[in-house]
């Protein structure tokens, strides 16, 4: 797989080049989800370089600033928001015992740029808060994020809380972070995703399926 120019520029922390490339991609109509995903890939490379001792904390902070700049540019993209029904609302949060939020925030940004209304519950969210949020906002999709093994039990308890409130199977649960199929089975979630762009595509397909079923 050939690395894109944008991924390479982010990896090099070349701010001017990154912004120039993003402006060019917006001009030719490239979608926000692709632009942000490439930026995320570059940030991942920066993280790898940091782990190898080739980059330092200041470099990590710079990559975060670059991401904010890219977000600012694509937020003004004319076609960044799709025509989505108001009912397309997603409840999102990092589960109890976990305070990681970078992946969560990235996916929330991607979802919002694609027209979805996202309610962000934050981090260290108790199972009951997810259940209460589903009832209050009439949610059909809940995204649970977790990057530590302790989060698996919290995800499982969250699904159980939804069951106790009689919200399953009407509410689909998507887990992301440090997860796989085994974790999905353990938590009894409906789906698991390995990256943000995949998560956005999954949510879109679930809403499309729901709309088709309602019409049928």
Summarize the structure.
The chain has 216 residues and is an alpha/beta fold. The chain contains nine helices and five strands.
Topology:
Elements lengths: L4 H7 L3 H13 L4 H20 L5 H18 L14 E6 L7 H12 L3 E4 L6 H11 L3 E6 L4 H14 L7 E6 L3 H7 L3 E3 L2 H20 L1
Parallel strand pairs: 1-2, 1-3, 3-4, 4-5
Give an overview in words.
By secondary structure, the protein is of the alpha/beta class. The chain has two domains: 5-74, Methionine synthase domain (Methyltransferase, Methionine Synthase (B12-binding Domains), Chain A, domain 1); 89-215, Cobalamin-binding domain (Rossmann fold, 3-Layer(aba) Sandwich). The chain has nine helices and five strands, in the order ααααβαβαβαβαβα. The protein has a five-stranded parallel β-sheet, with helices on both faces. β4 (172-177), α8 (181-187) and β5 (191-193) form a beta-alpha-beta unit. It is globular, with a radius of gyration of 18 Å. The model is unreliable at 78-86 (pLDDT under 50). It holds the Pfam family B12-binding.
């Amino acid at each position: 797989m050939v690395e894109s120019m944008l991924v390479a520029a982010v990896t090099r922390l070349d701010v001017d080049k990154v912004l120039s490339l993003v402006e060019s991609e917006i001009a030719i109509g490239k979608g926000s989800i692709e632009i942000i995903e490439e930026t995320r890939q570059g940030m991942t490379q920066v993280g790898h370089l940091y782990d190898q001792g080739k980059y330092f904390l200041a470099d990590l902070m710079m990559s975060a600033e670059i991401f904010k700049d890219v977000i600012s540019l694509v937020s003004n993209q004319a076609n960044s928001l799709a025509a989505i029904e108001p009912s397309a609302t997603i409840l999102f949060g990092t589960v109890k015992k976990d305070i990681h939020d970078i992946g969560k925030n990235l996916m929330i940004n991607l979802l919002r740029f694609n027209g979805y209304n996202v309610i962000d519950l934050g981090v260290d969210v108790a199972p009951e808060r997810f259940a209460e949020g589903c009832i209050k906002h009439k949610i059909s999709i809940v995204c649970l994020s977790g990057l530590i093994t302790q989060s698996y039990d919290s995800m499982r308890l969250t699904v159980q809380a939804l069951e106790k409130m009689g919200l399953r199977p009407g509410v689909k649960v998507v887990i992301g972070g440090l997860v796989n199929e085994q974790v999905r089975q353990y938590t009894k979630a409906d789906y698991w995703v390995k990256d943000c762009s995949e998560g956005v595509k999954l949510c879109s397909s679930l809403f499309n399926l729901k709309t088709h079923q309602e019409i049928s």
